[in-house]
Every structure is written in structure tokens, then in C-alpha cells.
Amino acid sequence: MNARRVPAGIVAAGLLMGALPFLKLPAFYESFLYLALFWIVLATSWNILSGYAGYFSFGHGAFFGAGVYTSATLAAKFNWPFLWTLPMAALVAAAIGVGVGAVVFRVRGVRGEVFALLTLAVTFVLATIVGNTPIDGGPGVYLNAVPVPKLGPSPTSSLYLMMLAAAVVTLLASWAIRHSRFGAGLFAIHDDEDAAEVMGVPTYRWKLAALAVSCALAGLAGGIHALFISYVTTAETFNLTVPLTVVLMSILGGTRHWAGPAIGAVAITCLLFAFTGGEYAVLGKGVIGLILVIGILFMPEGVMGKLRRKGIGSLSEGAARPHLHPHPNPLPQAGEGVRQPASEVLLRVNGLSKSFRGLKALSNVSLEVRKGEILGLLGPNGSGKSTFINVVSGHYLPNGGEVWLDGRNIAGLPAHEIARAGIARTYQIPRPFAQMSVLDNVAVAAMYAGRGLPSLDAGRREAMQWLEFTHLAGKAQSLPGELNLHQRKFLELARALASRPKLVLLDEVLCGLTPTEIQSAVEQIRRIRDQGTTIVFVEHVMDAVMALTDRLVVFDQGSMLAEGAPRDVMQSPAVMSAYLGVAHA
Amino acid sequence: MSFPSWTLLSQSVLSGVFAGALYGLLGLGLGLSWGLLRTINLAHFAFAFLSAYICYQLAAVSHVDPLLTLVGIVPLMFALGAGLHWLTDRFRLTPFSSLLLTFGCMGIVESLMQTLWTADPRKLESHYAEMKFRLGPLYLPIPEVLTLLLAVAITVAVWAVLRFTDLGKALRASAEDAPVAAAFGINQRRNGFLLAGTCSAIAGIAGVCLALSSSISPSQMYAWVGVVFAAVMLGGLGSALGPLVAGIVIGVSEAVTMAVTSPSWAPLVSFTLLILILLLRPGRIR
Fold first, then answer.
1. Is ipTM over 0.85?
2. Same structural domain for residues A289 and A207?
3. Cα–Cα dist A12/A162, whole Å
4. A232 with A258, same domain?
5. Same domain membership, residue A489 and residue A440
6. Contact call for B108 and A290, based on CB within 8 A
7. Are residues A292 and A390 in the same domain?
8. Which range of residues forms the domain containing residue A121?
9. Minimum distance, in Å, between the CA of residue B70 and any CA atom of chain A
10. Which residues of B touch A302 (CB under 8 A)?
């Protein structure tokens, strides 16, 4: 099983490379290898937030620079032993990153592009502050007098060994995060942040955590590099070379693979080396630009993405594939326990309101959902059914009212906390995480929503059971794009069920299905209820509604029109006029 | 920190307005292509600087009147912009990929400019720069006044086209919902090329203004990225008047900051404004 082999391999490669300086190689090789390792650390650390979670940062230069100046200041002005400055460099960079992230990630509208540009701005802000305060003050900081820690036979080899250690740590972190519960959450954020939040992923905290790790590693590299260049200036530190190069390296290598950025880093470092010196340096910049252009156009997934497509590099995907031994069906078979719709209330909604710029989508809605029942939610288009689901699941903040689940008011809580409290939902138009396997799609919900599971392996095992339940087990390793609509609806269902929720909100799961598919879906929903899960069922297919539901609630223009047993409700005059129009007789 | 005199302060505000006009002129095309074409065009800055260098070359070496160079620069930039749009359109790039792609283009153009004109700053000495007139105690340099006039004229013209003509309505409709707009018979391909070309042509005009009023060096274009994007985001994506207004607000705040503290603090102003707006009015930026 290569779950243990990869980290062992990284450490072994590190040890082997650590022996190089003692073979008395010319210093030239050490500098070259140092630079390659330097870029490996920077590109790989960048990738932990930007590649995994999809928030491209152009501010990596700022966080790297924070490390450079922390080490330079502490070592040159306060005479700290150099090695002690490195943890501080990582810490300061991480603190700045978290500070920026705490502001930027709090704003809901800030997604990809705006984030990229804001982080670009951070670089210049930091450069201005450093340049105008005694940290630098203009002339730059010299580290000539700082003694290089004696780790290897020569100062160059000591620096090389330090960067090697940093690279090993960074690659281990990158690998570990890629194959963890945390990593799966980041990939879910990458594909669909709202859906991730609804599946229980604490998106805000996860983005901050990824940013912190990413910045700390960049700061560490910066600290070491300060001593390597031994004279630091704001102009050389806070420019666009670092962000441009790391973006390029990661894109070229592939951002979805833990080793992608490292591979890109080695390739580009070799290339840059060919262009060093005088005239060629200028040309190098153009060549990098050209490679970036060609990469974006013809190889948007990078080298590792290409390889995986061809099935060669599938090691990471297959690594933690769960063992397929037959599981007992997670649900008791229908009819196992004869169900009595209890009168106990699971969800109580009081005076819930939501308006969009004056349009009242929900006004003063109060209703109850009882334990173990299927409550049908009906109403013409635009009557507020989907808004109701969006507000209860935390996708929208309500303007007023309370939502009590098991004695706890969950109105206004972030969506991931509502998911953890035990409410799951499906989307009317399925929103799978497009670049994660079907199995991992379900595993994310199993790991994060409801009571949650502590590890990716446990999540995948649980997910497999739900894929079997929804007859998708054969598609576990496919991407959602390869499923048909019926299967994608069932994937939504599997994701909602995988957290073993107390309450499932089904938003038009039958819409668009053929009559036979509806038949099998109705059976499926019955089995879900028989296990004890309470269901709110929004649907237009009347046969299914009448067959499944215990009670009906009808919405019209954002408020409740009727409530009661299905037959009574459908025959009430108010409902008939809302659906069929007023009789003019 | 000492409080400057009123004359100095008014002069700062005035120079802030002039600087803001250039931010607005650069931001206009950037914001339009972001908002209406979903292309985040960093090459916009490269186009502007390339135009500035071409203007410098023609005026300083071949002694053409700097303003006459526009005759050649505008069509050239239009073609470059349309060509870039062909790429982003042909490969169906997302806004983000377009940002990376044009980042690459910026590197290529920088390398080209550095090869042709070296990394040293160049300053165009034109007879416009010697013309200046005074308004009471205030001093008005002609290149800056020209920039302001051009910025206002072009901004108002673009605003009017977007608001009142069928073409403008078609462009806004396509930005809001491309498939529906196409179903109503809007020729999006043609409109896209037209808009992309126009945005770059405006960048070309901004470049000439830049060459007239300040010294240029290839790496300087990165310094403009932050401020101009701040103006675009403050002004609103796809808005015609927004970038100019926001640009002038930023320009004036920067100039006053420089007068009251020291010039090196100026870069902080635009980003502070941007972050404040982000926090206070998050809906402003989409």
C-alpha cells in the first residue's frame, strides 16, 4: 500500500540529497540545487491554498517577504542566532496571512479573481510599510555579519541543507494535506464553496488554516533565503517575480497533485538557469510569460493532470481506495419496523421571513415538522419553497424568525453548523463537486456533516455504503460529469444521507426523471423514511406527493396557504384557486 | 508632520485629479472587459506601456507630434486587443484563466520593451511639456490637462454608447445572460471583438497620455496594476463612469496623503480605500 510509501520516499530522497555536500561537489552545484529546492518550497506552499482550495494568491511574494525581513531584522539588528529566527519568520508570515485572510475571507463576495487582486495589493502595502519604517527604511538590510550555522562543510552547503530540510517538510505537508479530511474539504471548496458549506465544511476556517500553513512555509523559505542573498531590499523582495514564478510552476506541474508544483519548479529552475547572465535574463522573463500562455491554453491541468488523465499517475487517487467488502445495507429493509408518525416535533419554524430587496420571498411562515414524517411542501413556482429550504439550511440569512431543531435555535447560524446539527439538503439542479470522484463527493458529506467522521478512510467507507444504497457503487471512481441526470440526482441523495441527518430537505429530486425512474426514487425515499429520517419533500409530481407524504403544507406568494392531511389540503378552495385560478361562475 | 499651506494643498488636490484622470482612463477599458466580456486583462497595462514607448520612439526619435502618433497607435492597439480576444474566446477561458494568460502576455511584452528600450526610465521631452498656464496661484501643466479632458470625453462617450445605443444595450444584455441574448439575435462575436478592440484602443490613448506626462520604464507597469484595479473595483465592474470617479477619488486621496505625510506612503491609500469599501459595502464588488 503506498499510503506509507510516499512519505517514506520523500524522507529517503531528503536523506540522500543531504549526503551530497559531503561528497565535495563544486559549490556551483549546491547553489543550483539550493535554488531548485527554494522554488519547490515556494511553489508547493503556494499550492496548499491556491491549488487545493482554488483561491489563487498573487501575494505569495508578500508572505515570502515577511519571512525575509523577519529573519533579516532579528539576525542582523537583534543578533539572534540565525536558526532561531526561522520559526519566527514562519510565524510572522502566517500571522500576516491570517490577518489578511480574516478580513478578505469574511466578505462573501470575494471569490477567485478579487482575492487574487487583493493579495497582489498586499505585496505593495507590505513593501510600503517596510520601506517607510525602521524595519528597512530605504537602504536595505545587510546580513554579511550574520554567522551561517555550521550544518555542512561550507556555508553554501549549510544553506543548501537548511533549504533541503524546508523542502522535505513542505512536501510532507503537501502530501499529508492532499490525502486527509482537511484536504478533501479544501478540494470541495475549490469546486463549489456553497455546496461545501452545506455539506458541513467550515469553509471560512479551512481557508484561513490553509492560508496559514501556506504562508508559514513561504515565510520559512524567505527566512533562509535572506541569509543566502545576504543583502535584502524591498525592491528585490516585494516584486512580482515570486508570485509570477510560483503560479507558473504550479500551473505547469498541475495544481491538483501534491507533487505537481515541485515538478514544475524543477523544470522552470532548469530553464531559468539556461537563461542566466546579462542579455538572457531579459529573454528569460519573456520565455516564462510565453510558457505560461501556452500552458494555460493547451495544458490547463498541468503535467500531473495530463498524466493522470492517461491513467499513469493514478497513484494518488487509488491510494486510499477503500477495501470493497460487502457492507450490510445501512438502512433496515422496508416494513421492518412499522412506523407510527410520532407527534413529537423535530423542527419548529416561527415567523420566518426572507426578502430580497423588497420582494417578500417568505413572510412570517410558521410550521412544524414532526419526527419520522414526510412533509410535502407544495406551491406554484415562486411561492417560496426553495427559499424556505435555502433559509432553513443556512444558505440565506433570514430577515426574521426562528428555526428550532431539537430545542436549539439554528436560524442565522452558518450553513456548516446547521449541517452538523443534522439537517441535510439536496439541490434541485445537482451541484456535485465536479473534479472529485463520486466516492469523494459523498465522503465529504460523511466526514463533515452530522456527527462527522474523523478520517478520509472512514469517510470513504461510509460513502461506499451510501453509493451501494443509491445503486451508484459501480461509479464510485468516476467523475460526476460522467453520470446521467438520474444518477446525479441519486448522488445528491447519497450526499444528503451520508451524514445520517435527522432531517433531509429534498428539493425537487424527481424533477426531470422518467416515470420508471420516479418509481424507483419513490421507493428509495420510502426506505429512507423507514429508517427514521424525517423528510421535507418539495415536489411538483403530484402522484409522488400523494403517495409519499403524511402531511402537506402549501405555500403561495411567500406565505402559508394551507396545512393538513394531503387529501384535505388538495380539496381546500384556497389551494384550488391558487393552482387553477379563481372560478368565474 | 506639518500641515501644508492652502496653495500647496490645492495644488496637491489638482495634481490628484490629474493622476486620477489617468487611473480612470486606464481603468475604463479594464473594467469594461472584466464586466462585459469576463476577461480580466492584465495585458491592458502592457498595451498602454507599449503605446507609451511607441509614442516616445516616434516623437523623440522621428520627431512626429506626440498627439499625431495616436493615428497609428489606436488602430494598432485595437488589433492587438481584438487578437487577444480571439484567443480567450477560441479557448473559452474562464475569467481566472484569462487573468493568468494575460499575466503571461505582460511578461512577454515587458521582455520585449526591455530589449528594445532597456530597463532605464525614458522621458519624452515634447513642446507640450513646456506649455503651462497659471490659474491664480495654481499651475496647470498642459499634458495633464489634456489627459483629464481626454479621460472625461472618452468616459462620457462610452457611457452614452452603452446607455443609449442598440450596441450598448446588446453588450449589456450579453454580459447579463449570453445565451438568452444570443437567442434574441445579438451578434456576440462581432460585439465582443468590437468591445475588446475598443478597450485596448483606450489603453493606447492612456499610454500616449502617460508618455506625455511622466517618465516610463518597463517594470513600472506593475506599479499601476494595484491602483487601477482599485479604481475599477471601487467604480464597479462594467461601469463606464465608475472608474473615472473612483480614480479621481483615489488620486486626490493619494496626493493629499503625499502632501501631509511623505510621498512614499501613497501606495497605501488606494488599498486602504479598497478594503474599507469591501468591508462597508460588500455588495459593491461582484
1. no
2. no
3. 16
4. no
5. yes
6. yes
7. no
8. 44-238
9. 27
10. none
